[in-house]
Amino acid sequence: MSVALEVKNTYEDFILEKDILYFRVGEHGLVSFHGKNYHIKKRLNTEEIQKMTSDSSFFKVNTDCYVNTRKIQHIGDGKVYFEVRGSESKYTTITKLRQHRLKEIVLQQKGEA
């Protein structure tokens, strides 16, 4: 008897809203996706990038970086934290101008949940 297991290849088959903490859009369509303990670079076309950056689950924190608002643990001191593990915390920087707005969005989402 043979049983085939469905194995999810995180590097090719990730779900943007579920698996990605934040992503950075680079030159020539190169996008760097950051997950819990990995990061993946993929080249995407303009339409795919436009669709991702307009997704309401993601918020633009600086010129090239978008964070998953559903994965945020804490916002403070110009940083957005995704995990709380001391020095191993995953974070990215945020401009002070956008920090206040992001806090409002996160509080609103937690209120709806």
Task: Walk me through this protein's architecture.
- By secondary structure, this protein is of the alpha+beta class.
- The chain contains three helices and eight strands.
- It has a five-stranded antiparallel sheet with strand order 3-2-1-5-4, with helices on both faces. The protein has a three-stranded antiparallel sheet with strand order 6-7-8, with helices on one face.
- The N and C termini lie far apart (44 Å).
- Pfam families: LytTR.
- This is HTH LytTR-type domain-containing protein.
- Residues 18-105 form the HTH LytTR-type domain.
Short summary of the structure?
The chain is of the alpha+beta class. It is built from three helices and eight strands.
Secondary structure elements and their pairing?
Elements (H helix, E strand, L loop, with lengths): L15 H4 L2 E4 L4 E5 L4 E5 L2 H8 L4 E5 L2 E4 L5 E3 L2 E3 L9 E3 L2 H17 L1
Antiparallel strand pairs: 1-2, 1-5, 2-3, 4-5, 6-7, 7-8
Protein name: HTH LytTR-type domain-containing protein
GO molecular function: DNA binding
Organism: Paenibacillus oryzisoli
Structural class category:
alpha+beta
Instruction: Write down the Rg.
Output: 16 Å
- How many extended strands? 8
Average of pLDDT: 87
What would CATH call the homologous superfamily?
Answer: LytTr DNA-binding domain
N-end to C-end Cα span: 44 Å
Assembly state (oligomeric): single chain
What is the CATH architecture annotation? Beta Barrel
Beta-sheet strand percentage? Answer: 25-35%
How many helices? The count is 3
Relative helix content = 25-40%
Strand/helix succession: HEEEHEEEEEH
**Physical arrangement of strands within the biggest beta sheet:** 3-2-1-5-4
What does the largest sheet look like?
5 strands, antiparallel
Which stretches are poorly predicted, pLDDT < 50 over at least 5 residues? Answer: none
Shape call: globular
Query: How many domains, in number, for the residues?
Result: 1
Kindly report the CATH topology.
OB fold (Dihydrolipoamide Acetyltransferase, E2P)
CATH class: Mainly Beta
